[in-house]
Amino acid sequence: MIDSSIRKLVCYGLEKGLFDKRDEIYITNKILEVLGLDGLECYEDFSDVELESTLKELLDFAVSKGIIEDNITERDLFDTKLMGLMIPRPSFVTDRFYELYKESSQKATDYYYKLSCDSDYIRRYRIKKDLKWQTETEYGTIDITVNLSKPEKDPKAIALAKTAKQSGYPKCLLCKECEGYSGRINFPARQNHRTIPVKINNSDWFFQYSPYVYYNEHCIVFNGEHSPMAINPATFRKLFDFVKQFPHYFVGSNADLPIVGGSILSHDHFQGGHYTFAMAKAKVEKELNFEGFSDIKAGIVKWPMSVIRLSGKDTDRIIALAEKILFAWREYSDESVGIFAQTDGTPHNTITPIARKNGDNFELDLVLRNNITTDEHPLGVFHPHAELHHIKKENIGLIEVMGLAVLPARLKSEIAGLKEAILQNRDVKNDEVLSKHADWVDEIKLKYTDINNDNIEKILKDEIGLVFSAVLEHAGVFKRDEKGVNAFVKFANSVK
Question: For residue range 440-454, what is the model confidence (pLDDT) as tens digits?
Fold first, then answer.
């Protein structure tokens, strides 16, 4: 059986074009070596190989022979090692990418994205487990995903990780040294990972895909140096540099402050992809005029967060205006709406910028952020408040800002439990798991007169989407009432 499993893996690699027929014997021998085998008796050809089940057979064999322990962490390390044996070297991938780039940037990214999937760096069979749906809101159609593709760590692996020797190599998950790295119990393997070097603002950066692809061709663009996140005028130039090279992609940056930033602040990076989010589709609802920039269209976007959109053909002019807005916002306070630029010397104001090409024009969305905390809102004033934590408590980063909710895995079982409780008219206040949703459930029951087995799932998903819409409203620094809109315009008028 193990012979046929090896053959299936080799045939998969051939079928996907991971290596040439000339390399077949070499690849087979490398797999035998890793599995501690001396030879192969099966030479059957297989087609349409299912990768997940084939890898499982090989992993089960490795466990049975004591090569690895039977936990998700060691299994992931080992199957990545197997896949890494079949992937071309970085120089080959880069050369092929830029050869295709001469024809079109999209042909190049199509090749690279397919390789990232076929190599199992992007585990498509896990991504399929994510729950995904869309909800109509007053701001447009927003995307919801319940993230199930990140595997839960085995308790034994967690214990091993605590005692494992700490290493400073690679420094983080976004460092260029991750390419081809074998991994360890507390760091993922990346033998099947390849990156593409790109020049951004005359400096060395790299381009890769996210292994969790929350949206189509979800990519990460990261600095070749391990330097911290920073939002400054150079950031805007870097974003447009990337968009000019890959005009079919948008790209944006997380903010550079805790609470309103991403999960990795220690390494400068952007996220982009081949997808149009609800925020990009949202229209400007109030035009703004900035002195000396009549050639740049500017306005407040109809979006739950506070967004200024700049649009024009000349990116240098957009960047010049964005710089003025950034510097003005860094120092701006308005006590009437709870905005303080700093407290006790700690800065609070920053921006989440997103760049894209829209027809003949370039666009830059500047999302105003503030990370101040208070006793009433210890996690952040402009952060989802406590009454929404039953759905979303985590930071609102770039992806959420644009209109895609990345919600915790716990919601899968909680949605199932809520469906059952509501249909049985059972009070969830005393339910250890579901009690956090009790007030929300009461609101749903009042809102819908007819809840039945046919519509309960759609109702719950729609209402989760509306909660996320409210989450974004909480994160908006200028609220969408008359007072907030006037305060927003007042800030825009202060930009000189």
Answer: 999 999 999 999 999
Cα distances from 400 to residues 262, 370, 397, 480, in angstroms, run 10, 16, 6, 18
Distance CA 272, CA 456 (A): 35
pLDDT of residue 262: 79
Residue bearing tokens 């992993």: 59
Tokens of 214: 């929350």
Q: Are the C-beta atoms of 160 and 185 separated by less than 8 Å?
A: yes
- How is the chain split among helix, strand and coil, in percent rounded to 5? 40, 20, 40
* 107-143 tens-digit pLDDT: 999 999 999 999 999 999 999 999 999 999 999 999 9
| Spatial distance between the Cα atoms of 472 and 303, rounded to a whole number of angstroms | 9
Q: Give backbone dihedrals phi and psi of 312, rounded to 5 degrees, phi first.
A: 180, 175
> Distance (Å, rounded) from C-alpha 77 to C-alpha 13?
19
Residues of the chain with confidence (pLDDT) below 50: none
Token pair belonging to 127: 């991504």
Contact of 367 with 351, CB cutoff 8 Å: yes
pLDDT of amino acid 95: 98
H or E segment to which residue 301 belongs: strand 297-301
Residue 205's alpha-carbon distances to 201, 222, 229, in angstroms, are 9, 6, 14
